[in-house]
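#structure-requests
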Amino acid sequence: MSAAPTPPGSALPGDTLQPPKLLLGLVAASAVAHGGLAVVGGAVWAQVLSAVLCAAGLVAVALLIARPVPHVVLGVAVLGMLGVASFLGVLGAALATGGHPVSGWIGPWGIAAVIADSSVVRIAAAVLRRAENAGRGRP
């Protein structure tokens, strides 16, 4: 049993996309913000978490430049979601302990990171939606 033929012009998982430069800039800004958090993050575990997110962001920037396929754009969206979840998790940990072990996350670096991460998710979802609509023949 063979698969149905793919209509011409459809967006296959291996097809390269044309993500806007805004997405690339937001991912880079997110990586920089997480790098800043790794320096001022307070608790060691929060600094390590932010350093990992910074490194992953830099890898995502390189992948977006080298091969902007749907899998990479989806990975960027997931990375943005993890960044937002890390901010909320660290904020929850700080509130639960009653102390300020991660006070840097509530400062400018943390706010910049969560805004950039949430914007990355939004723009990456729009890029994937546009590619899916183009594959169906819709404008």
